Amino acid sequence: NTPKSYIPGLEQFMNTIQTEHAKLWYAGNARNWELAAYQLAEIKELMSDVQDLVPTFKDLPLASMLDAVITGPIAEIEKALDAKNFAGFSAGYGKLTEACNACHQATGNRFIVIQRPVRPAFPNQDFRPN
To answer: Residue-wise over 20-41: b if at least 16 C-beta within 10 A, else e?
Structure first.
């Protein structure tokens, strides 16, 4: 009897990306560049998994759409993190958030609106550099 393998659905991936998106903001806002780079790498890894496992969604080229996010806003954030540049990070984060919402609109999910976090949702994590 072979165990059934589990592949998360798109919503499970997106919920995890949303969590990493919030943690990315908290880390960058605290100028914890190492943690912010880690969170951004997690987002890229999840997006890569989506590209591999859900390359199309509602007949749209989701893999290509995510590639544009990875090579655009995410690359911009990576440069800002390398430079420890908060203004660049904040601007790139805004563009990443806009890209998330543009994708949601393109896929008919305009009711899913992502924003910069306004209050910490992770009281059990310290985002300050140590």
So the answer is: bbbbbbbbbbeebbebbbebbe
**What integer pLDDT is reported at residue 92 of this predicted model?**
98
Longest distance between any two alpha carbons in the chain, whole Å:
55
Of the candidates 86, 85, 89, the one whose C-alpha atom is nearest the C-alpha of residue 75 is: 89
CB 100 within 8 A of CB 122: no
**Three-state DSSP state, 31:** coil
Please give the angle made by the CA atoms of 41, 20 and 92, to the nearest 5 degrees. Answer: 70
116 φ, ψ to 5°? -65, 135
Which portions of the chain are predicted below pLDDT 70? none
pLDDT of residue 1: 80
Amino acid 96: pLDDT? 98
Per the DSSP assignment, residues forming a β-bridge with 57 are 60
**What's the one-letter identity of residue 111?**
F
> How many other CB atoms sit within 10 Å of the CB of residue 73?
20
